[in-house]
User: What shape does this take?
Amino acid sequence: MAFTKGMNIKPNCITIILRCNLYYFLRAPQLQRFLDFRTLLTFGLLLNCVIGSAQEKRGADIPWTTYEAEHMKTTGAIMGPGYQPYQVETESSGQQCVKLSNKGQYIEFTSSGSDNSMVIRYSLPDGRKGNGKRATLSIFINGHFIQHCAISSRYAWLYGKYPFTNDPAAGNPRHFYDEMRVTGLKIAEGDIIRIKRDDQKEDDAEYCIIDLVDLEKIAPPLNQPANSLSITDEAFPGADAGDDYTEALRNCIAVAQQTGKSVWIPVGIFKITGDIILPANITVQGAGMWYTQLTGDEALYANASRRVRLKGDGSNIHLADFAITGKLTYRSDKEASDGIVGSYGTNSTISRIWVEHTKVGMWIENSENLKVTGCRMRNTMADGINFCVGMKGSTIENCTARGTGDDCFAIWPTTFLKQVFSPGHNLIIHCTGELPFLANGAAVYGGDSNTIEVCTFTGISQGSAILISTTFPTENKQKGINNNFSGTTVIEDCDIKSSGGFDHEWGWRAAVEICVDKRNIAGIEINNLNIVNSLSNGLSVIAKNEQDEVGLLSAVNLRNITISNVGIAVKGKYGLFINNAAHGSLTIKNSDIPEIKNESENFTIAK
Assistant: This one.
């Protein structure tokens, strides 16, 4: 059975276009005499239907089709659904998966379209010392063998308490899954695809679990643009095949900056073993996220300074159309993040980048009017994309995150660096977050008037789909900076499914949660949310008060909220829950919330 996610149509654009057409239609003199009330009414109804239809589609514009393993023909065993912490089923899409215990077992499904690439989300057992195990999968199309695919759990499995360890003895496992990409396939609509466990002599995994398969039709690689310099040009050292391309890329960037040209990275895998500093007014262009790959060296990756790290250091920086594949197997927050990091000044863009096996996908600071669009974050050790220190008027749009080790998308205006821009008015729009093995789908931790809208969050089993919280620091008293919530924080037009799971430090989170952790939160508008199949509470307000520090929640409005089927994982949960430590108030209008539980004498709910 296939689950296809179609193209998004931006409702604002359609509204403007249709209203403009109506305006000119009504002003045309030759038509005015033919219009009557019924004509106007009919046109108005059509306008509303089209706009309403456009507004129904939420989340990113996803160009692939996802096939769930539990809906396929299989000789393996279907696992789940499961919702409890530290289980592979809970981290699975739809909280179900298929276990192939023996060589020769398979999953099989029929393609619903013409595609040429594949992603397999899988889980193998860990090694006794936490160093992973190996297996081999074989792909067949219509009974014909296509290729072997070697897989490993080297980059999966963490244990114990945050920030976790690779030692299985610590118990409480998480991060069960990894993914494998396959290109060059020829798949037609109606083709029967079989993925079979076909272990080789060197393989040692006791089982292989398959969660899902994505099929996608990717475009051919891009051509080198005019007025660009390629990192494979003979002028740049390290341009021979198989060499370390760190110096070649650095030198190419330096020359491109001097000559006003852009940097071109062609089709291929290019080893990077040190920081790539991105100066102002530079463009780095690849042949496509499926074709151009910057990869780390596993032998050097334990040294945080030898990782794949593209570090912004200026304005008007533009990155597009390549992948970053790290080799990180653990999380240490004492070490700098790899992936895409740094400051992007003003008016920079990051477009169509795929990042995996790094600490974060993107950790961005001190940027104004930055646009991050069409990017994919996969299987990171921490956040997918985090707008951190000094982020102003910047946007994350049409991005996806799956299997991240912290928030899929976050806005955290902290102050551990010098703050260049006053943080606020950032936007997360048309994004999809799925299946993190820690934390939340999207989180806002402070700042002025930030917004999350037209997004989809599914399978957020370790936290909330959307969290608004004062848990993390946003103040520097010595410098007189306080980036706590101000203005109006807006959450609207989002779909939330199978979320609100067990956070190992906070217990069961709600699908949408406001966490008033010792500091005040004022000014929240939550509109047009559809929350279904919550593992715990649908929506909650919780507070943690310490040493006479009491946070107050105020000026909060919930409008057009629909919540159905709560408490799937744990009984005794509610559509809206207020814990006994909460102080403040909120207002509910035009909402369908099945059951409300207010434990606090210091909190009021108005309708």
Remarks:
- The chain has four helices and 49 strands.
- Residues 288 and 321 are 4 Å apart (CA to CA).
- The first helix runs from residue 11 to 27.
